[in-house]
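quick q for whoever's on today - can somebody do inverse folding on this one?? i tried earlier but teh output was garbage lol. tokens:
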């Protein structure tokens, strides 16, 4: 899971978005989603941060959950406490 988090961080910090006037758009901040949440909004927040569909992030989380033998549940609850609203 550390590799995934590091990869996402590097990907988000290396991309620069420009709007139509060629000024830099500030990157999104990682927050829990208020609108697209099922439990605490962690997966919805990651989806908003990455610009992905929340269902895709939830499916990826479910695959990580199965392959990590439940460690992802602990990570989810820690993120639910640590991530701002």
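ok took a stab at it. sequence:
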């Amino acid at each position: 899971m550390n590799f995934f988090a590091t990869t996402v961080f590097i990907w988000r910090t290396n991309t620069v978005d420009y709007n139509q006037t060629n000024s830099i758009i500030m990157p999104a901040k990682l927050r829990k989603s208020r609108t697209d949440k099922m439990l605490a909004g962690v997966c919805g927040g990651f989806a908003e941060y990455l610009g992905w569909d929340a269902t895709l992030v939830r499916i990826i989380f479910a695959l990580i959950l199965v392959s990590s033998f439940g460690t992802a549940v602990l990570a989810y609850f820690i993120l639910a406490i640590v991530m701002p609203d």
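fwiw The helical segments are 2-14, 42-50, 54-67, 71-82. also The first helix runs from residue 2 to 14. so keep that in mind when u check it
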